[in-house]
Amino acid sequence: MEQLEFLVEPSQAGQRLDKFLAAAQDRLSRSALQNLLEEELILCNGKPVNKKYTTRAGDEILVQIPPAQPLEAVPQNIPLDIYYEDPHLLVVYKPKGMVVHPAPGNPDGTLVNALLYHCAGELSGIGGQLRPGIVHRIDKDTSGLLVVAKDDPTHQELSRQMSVHSINRIYQAVCYGGFKEDSGFVEAPIGRHPQDRKKMAITPKNSRYAYTGWEVVERLGTFTHIQCKLKTGRTHQIRVHMASIGHPLAGDPVYGPQKVIKELEGQCLHAGTLGFVHPATGEYMEFNAPLPEYFEKFLKKLRGEGS
To answer: Which residues, 6+ apart, have CB-to-CB distance to 304 below 8 Å?
Structure first.
């Protein structure tokens, strides 16, 4: 079992232990530290403490990290909404609430588990054992279209198109506030948040170029329905970029207001349009997924149309 040791300096006294440890290292998130506290794997002066413990000068903290449990993506008979399929690839609709691939906290029930069953394991291996066939991802609470590769040459070509920004990806979103202009863009680098490792942020450090174009679809009082066209595909890109200009997405529990619109169960964001050149045929193909029910229902509410 790996161990990390820390000594609380006088200037660090008076902090909650999980907050102190989150700032002292960048490997474990605050929620992960809280879990370790509950499992009594964090000791203060040789004894377990509860998660509300406040640090004192001279405290000797020992964090014990248990070995990671290996994840394995296994086939599961989960229904898929397939828009297109051929021997090289498939275009599939991921519903809101489904995770794309297995990860700690979501070991199964993912899109990858469903794909392994449907494709009988015939998926590209470039993404590794836990991400077979996965060329690009969308967040758990974002609905929409994904292209999945069945073989490595197809995966390589789709990844190339992604890298040169030639894949057409248009998202629908509802965000807070009104816009003076009808269209615009956000061009700002995105990287891991320096204080909260579970969040992304606009930062010059360890970041990558990101560009989001936006256009107003409908003004709805204190909210606006927009569509966003991505040139890049960074983690949480639309959510971070729109929040950075004062227009966080409705329902976003991470980048939005503290009072979350709970009925949305996550950000109001839908990957509705996906277009690319087929790697085998050279034909441009484009697919469109209509707005999901939760999205339409929210728009009607904002228009005052009732249920």
So the answer is: none
Q: What is the pTM of this model?
A: 0.77
Helix, strand, coil shares of the chain as percentages rounded to 5? 20, 30, 50
Residue type, 156: Q
Catalytically active residues, by annotation = 139
At 252, list the tokens: 């976003």
Phi and psi at residue 154, in whole multiples of 5°? -65, -45
- Nearest CA-CA partner of 45 in 90, 92, 7, 93: 7
Query: pLDDT at position 245, please?
Result: 97
CB 171 within 8 A of CB 225: no
Which ranges of the chain have pLDDT less than 70?
A: 68-71, 306-307
Quote the DSSP letter at residue 28.
S
Domains plus CATH for the chain? 2-65 (3.10.290.10), 69-164 (3.30.2350.10), 165-307 (3.30.2350.10)
Q: What is the pLDDT of residues 123-147, one digit of tens each?
A: 998 777 778 999 999 999 999 999 9
Cα–Cα–Cα angle for 301, 303, 307, rounded to 5 degrees: 35
Half-sphere exposure of 96 (CA within 13 A, CB side): 18
Question: Which residues, 6 or more positions from 45, have their beta carbon under 8 angstroms from its beta carbon?
Answer: 59, 60
Q: Report pLDDT for 71.
A: 59
Tokens in use for 212? 């989001």
3-state secondary structure of 35: helix
185 contacts: CB under 8 Å, gap ≥ 6: 211, 212, 213, 214
Give the alpha-carbon dihedral of 200, 206, 211, 216, to 10 degrees: 20
The CA distance from 286 to 92, in Å, is 13
Structure tokens at 208: 């990558």
pLDDT at res. 38: 86
